[in-house]
Design goal:
Helix content is 38%, strand content 13%. It is built from seven helices and four strands. The longest helix has 20 residues.
């Protein structure tokens, strides 16, 4: 990697971004986190978040600290990445029924309403959003993207860890990445 490359883990909420951050950290890529959001029942291994990313539209100074590191950025904020850096984006995908079920369980644990938007409408909104983000990413000359499916990583962690390692530049510890894939956290399984 060049010295101005920033690795981004992105995707919809509940799509496996925290697992991917943990894999990359275990593999030797330093995460940019602030530990403000701590582990809980929804993410017992931690969220690996950096609060300032939420202000990227108005605050991009933190990106200098993200060079040669990995940071988590939800898909809706990718469009605010300035063109002055090179990015390697690992975009997480997951079966939509599992994303919706995981979000529902998180809302239940937080005693928040789960019926504000019906699942079919939420799924349609998410799918449209992901299509728009993919189209935008495809047009960015300074962004390389690797799409990774959460469900596939659980089924075959080695081949995906190897793909990710090649994408990042070949310096990650693949076996360490594999060792942190935890099937016990796969709680919202959906059979097609």
């Amino acid at each position: 990697m060049t010295n101005d490359t920033i690795t981004i883990v992105s995707g919809l909420p509940r799509s496996g971004t925290s697992m991917m951050m943990k894999m990359l950290a275990a593999g030797g890529l330093e995460p940019l986190t602030d530990n403000i959001r701590t582990a809980d029942e929804d993410n017992p291994k931690g969220y690996f978040e950096f609060e300032r990313v939420k202000q990227i539209e108005n605050d991009q100074a933190w990106l200098e600290d993200a060079r040669n590191r990995v940071v988590k950025l939800i898909s809706a904020l990718l469009k605010h990445l300035p063109p002055s850096y090179r990015y390697k984006v690992i975009f997480m995908k997951r079966a939509m029924p599992e994303i919706l079920a995981s979000q529902r369980q998180m809302l239940i644990r937080r005693c928040e309403p789960t019926d504000k938007v019906p699942d079919d409408k939420m799924a349609a909104m998410f799918s449209k959003h992901v299509s728009q983000v993919e189209a935008w990413l495809a047009g960015q000359p300074n962004i390389d993207v690797l799409y990774i499916n959460y469900n596939d990583v659980l089924n075959d962690p080695r081949s995906h860890a190897e793909r990710i390692n090649i994408f990042i530049g070949g310096s990650l510890a693949v076996q360490e990445m594999i060792s942190v894939v935890d099937h016990a956290l796969y709680r919202q399984q959906h059979s097609a």
